[in-house]
Amino acid sequence: MSDSQKAMLSTISCFVFMAIGFVMERFSIPFYQLIFAIAILSGGAKQTIEGLTDTFENKTLNVDLLMALAAIGAAIIGNWFEGAMLIFIFSLSGALEEYTTNKSKKEIASLMQLQPETALRLAADGTTTEVDVATLQIGDLVLVPKGASIPIDGEMIKGFSTIDEAAISGESIPVEKTSGDMLFGGTINLGNAITLKVTTKSDDTLFAKIIQLVNEAQSTPSQTASFIEKIENIYVKAVLIIIPLMIFIPYLFLGWSFYESFYRGMVLLVVASPCALVASATPATLAAISNGARNGVLFKGGIYLENLAALKAIAFDKTGTLTNGTPVVTNFTFTTTSQEQQQEAIDILLTIEGTSTHPLATAITSRFKAEHQRVISDIEIKDVTGFGLEGIIQNDSWKVGKEGFLEGSAFSETIKQEVVQWQNEGKTVIYLAKNDTILGYFGLLDVPKPEAAAAIAYFKQEGIHTTMITGDHYATAKVIGDALEIDEIHADFLPENKTTLINQQKETYEINAMVGDGINDAPALANASIGIAMGGGTDIAMDVADMVLMQNDLEKLQMSHMMSKKLKRIVLQNIIFSASIIFILILSNLFQVINLPLGVVGHEGSTILVILNGLRMLKTISVHPTHTSSIHKSKKQFA
């Protein structure tokens, strides 16, 4: 039985005995006090034991102890029903908090269930053996049947399939994988049976890291929760000192009866307890962390989620963070007007580039593959390292490469002017030439991600200073930066330059963030107030960062900031509300206008409301694009 189920069972038991005791007292049935005592014990034993344990082991006082003393005090003066009702509502709020905690941690439980314990190890003769995942070694071959969970991280070496990676990235749309692609443990093979080669040990997989990160985050309190926890002990001590004064001063100096003075002391003990205040931050923070995990955002502690709302400056790496990390063909021109000659040029271009795995070659083949009509078979292709590729067809030389590879080729003024314009826009230019005659040229650029413009626009709208830091050339950086309307651009930066700038911004803005994905970003990520790693980046970047965007999606960063602001609002609402209720109830007690039952309902009711308000953080936050003109401009420029 789970802790939340036990807590709810004790609450129900308390209510049943309290109701029976109420009926027995109403009809003057003997021994109703015994039934109320059972109600108090069944509902309050757990909290009382925890309170006493905390007092003796950690030398701290908490609200559990105050509630136990208040119930005992109510019983001493004959208010058995009020004492039982106090414990019932206190137990109910405790059960609700247990439910909130379990609800917030359900992502870990569901992830743990998705993590396979066994795998089908593939032998050289094609036979399989079911083994414990922990026994798999790097280099082992594993067979993953259709519909099975992938047991460990590895490289697909055989087969083609569709993989559900929702457990890793939070993305519901399955991903197509083929030979050479990385597979992650805990994801599900929806397609055909596949074979993978193990590349990581079971305790070091991406999936294992996610579980560890979420677990650590939920165990690390926010600054507000830590502060409240620190003052709880002091506050409880103050209440325990004031209660005797509340009892004896009115009795000795104001003419109150001892019963009235003791009664008011017990009411004060109830209403002054900071139950709602203590529950103001932690349940809401846990709910927010689990909400982030469900949406592919991992926080390494509540403090980073909380600090995100106070963000004043954010810096982005360019390649792989603001951009896709791979070039695409943005412009192209064929010099021949003949449709037949142009088609021949495309066919030969793709035949030559199809033999290369270079990112520029891949970009060109991706752009023109739909127009490719035939593969040229009688062609001899050679790779001229550092320059490009050359294909020989019937004594004709076809070259694909940069300008330096085409010595002797004629570049018209039209070509030169257009190429200079493309280069000024930060684009790499690749030429296609036949026997020193330029037949075509192509401009390639690593373009911004579709969501990058919206993310930058959002942060600027929030008054947060934006910076792009890259090791790339300034011309390329400026094109990307201007298109995204980033406030500050720094190019040709080495890792130490990035770290220096991040430290300067941290000193200027106090709370700053760095977003990156590479090894060269790791020092800057570690030095920023909040280091944010892209999930598709390097292990070291993810290790030193304070939060990880598993989907490499900047929209999730925007969502995280919105979630942090919402968390701040909810915690502030809870603190103001709970403190106001305590003040009003204490004042009402001093003027003798509130009785113990109303004090119990007001105090414990406020605690329940605070916890329910915190549960609002479980609701997914929708991100709406901002500054649509900037987004349109970005898309138009790189179309």
TrEMBL record:
Signal peptide: none annotated. Residues 114-214 form the P-type ATPase A domain. GO terms for molecular function: ATP binding; ATP hydrolysis activity; ATPase-coupled monoatomic cation transmembrane transporter activity; metal ion binding. This is Cadmium-translocating P-type ATPase. The chain crosses the membrane at residues 6-24, 69-96, 234-254, 266-289, 570-590. It comes from Enterococcus sulfureus ATCC 49903. GO terms for cellular component: plasma membrane. Belongs to the cation transport ATPase (P-type) (TC 3.A.3) family. Type IB subfamily. Keywords: ATP-binding, Cell membrane, Ion transport, Magnesium, Membrane, Metal-binding, Nucleotide-binding, Translocase, Transmembrane, Transmembrane helix, Transport. It is a multi-pass membrane protein. PANTHER family: CADMIUM_ZINC-TRANSPORTING ATPASE HMA1, CHLOROPLASTIC-RELATED (PTHR43079:SF1), PROBABLE CADMIUM/ZINC-TRANSPORTING ATPASE HMA1 (PTHR43079). It comes from the Bacteria. Its main location: membrane. NCBIfam families: ATPase-IB_hvy, ATPase_P-type. It is found in: Cell membrane.
